[in-house]
Fold:
Amino acid sequence: MKQSPLLEFESSAFAVVAGEDDATNAGLFGKALAEWLAGELRVAGIAAGGVIAEDFGWCVPVSVPPHRLHVACASSEDAPDQWRVFAFAEGGLVARLLGRDTSAESLGALFIAVRRCLESHPEVRGLHEEPA
Structure:
């Protein structure tokens, strides 16, 4: 799995719904953030699917054939208005073995689009990047 850098920020714009962490690990939220981000990516021309729950938070599948990309969204354990977002690419073992893996380029473009979406939101504060 290839992963983008981690984006961390604060925002009270993404309401936590009681019980949403029943579908993830206890105390991990981010459904509203993932739904908003999926909509923003679609507006930007990126084929984002419906959000899905994972044990690590909420995930937005993104179609960039032949790659399977995702954007992971999760709350911080420290405070309810602190968030973490990163993009990742799944699979590609055969392409990597054959030297034809182009997922890094697709992942990089998705990361830039995600960062732009977050930068454009008026209630996102303190956006910063941490290495993967």
